[in-house]
Amino acid sequence: MAIYTCGHTTPDSDSICSAISLAYLLNKIGREATPARQGEVNPETQFILDRFGFTAPELKTSFAGEEIFITDYSDRGQAPKDIDEATIVGIVDHHKLGDLTTSAPLECWIRPVGCTNTIVKEMYDYHKVEIPKEIAGIMMCAILSDTVIFKSPTCTDLDIKVVRELAQIAGIEDFGALGMEMFKVKSAVEGVPVRELILRDYKPFDMHGSKVGIGQLEVVDLTIFDAVKDELQADLDKLREEEGLHTAALLLTDIMKEGSEVLVSSSDASIFEKAFDKKLENGKVWIDGCLSRKKQIIPFLEPAFA
Amino acid sequence: MAIYTCGHTTPDSDSICSAISLAYLLNKIGREATPARQGEVNPETQFILDRFGFTAPELKTSFAGEEIFITDYSDRGQAPKDIDEATIVGIVDHHKLGDLTTSAPLECWIRPVGCTNTIVKEMYDYHKVEIPKEIAGIMMCAILSDTVIFKSPTCTDLDIKVVRELAQIAGIEDFGALGMEMFKVKSAVEGVPVRELILRDYKPFDMHGSKVGIGQLEVVDLTIFDAVKDELQADLDKLREEEGLHTAALLLTDIMKEGSEVLVSSSDASIFEKAFDKKLENGKVWIDGCLSRKKQIIPFLEPAFA
Ligand SMILES: [Mn+2]
Ligand SMILES: [Mn+2]
Question: Which string of DSSP letters, residue by residue, matches B125-179?
Fold first, then answer.
């Protein structure tokens, strides 16, 4: 039985690229594997796949009876609905430890680094498998994406070292330029429905019993949102109602100015305000230096719900 | 702040030895670490520590405000009571993925192998740290203990390879003989109170809402229990009542005959009987080939509670 490698719901580039890079590795060490994805490919990821000649992994949302090697998450909120009927044979991830459990031993490669693909690189080295040029390319792009070209506080020395190694294998001389090109693709929001923008990189959380949903958009210039900010705010209210969320938020991250404007819709905004010791103005606040949802939002917001 | 390395409640040799071997490794890579233990040292472990010149790690049951690198478990049932007030910086384990969660990224080295110390060896290799002779000795003994000298179905080729490497480092020519010596120490039950025997290697589980406790005693000859079996059975009933368990069981494992007699006290024994498709006789049943609680008991018993 083939193992499916698959990342989280609303897949980002790391989820898609790690599914591909991990599946290749597993096949090389004699474990039949097929990459999959739980949702649509976003424009940034499509750019990466096109750049290195890959097609998107198979779309798959049901895994009952299958073996799955999870990439880029470890919580039930981001898993397929029927994950309890699947066998989780492994997890490779770089987030906090989530609430997935298993009934049999498995392998977990979880590290506090900037990107899952940095850890997949460790797995290639452990198994002494050579990384093909194209696979190295998509792994490198995923790391540049997750670490916001090394600017994110989640970025570690290991991420930088691995990008340099992968760039060499992929034959990319100026990976910084490729990263910027990638983020420009990511910044293309014109004509995109606001709901699609909110959900493009959206993660649901269970914070001590309260449902919280947080999206993030990383762009090279925040002014592109000026015309749609009110619309985004209104749609956050709508999303919160539809999904029964306590709080819905959207991070508009300016990777050049290195900070995020956070749009917040909440049934009790004081929780958010206390968590960050900041007052919202018309449901918005600028948080200077904030680039990472994982490291600069979740660890402060979650305890505020305790 | 020093990191505490610490295994599960009712520590076995793997929990104690991995706390020591991991702490040494962390110190070597510049992370101050102190080994700890959550409970008394059992006779087998004491034999190992004496054999290689170690004293037992510090007894510590409260970790509020501390950093902890967990070894040999990943579920709350085996964690310190105040684990939520500690920061889990890492987990190295070889069991099914438990229900511990964290609010920040961490490192997890979890593998489906026979012993945590096999994975700690992988960590030494990853960090290119040389293993001292004495540390290699206790790591080797822990693997021989957890894998029942390679007889357990949990034992993998990697465990065997690592034992050979560690034996070489430790300068032990006949590791099989040392293993048998160790299991003879483990088999010494004369004069030990029955409750102490039940709890010597005891693990609590939450099986779909039902509390289940399972102890295991591995000996070289089962007849040593003949005189105390009734007393053990009566004390299992008592333990079940005291702890509000649905089921309390004790595996009497004969490592030479390669099987286990299981003593069961249950508020509904039919669950156990269905799980293993066997009838209990006077609350007892022999399961041929059963050496591993983790691999041959839990994966069958847990689904029966679903
Ligand atoms: Mn990621
Ligand atoms: Mn163990």
Answer: HHHT-PPPHHHHHHHHHHHHHHTTTTTSTT--HHHHHHHHHHHHHHT-S-HHHHH
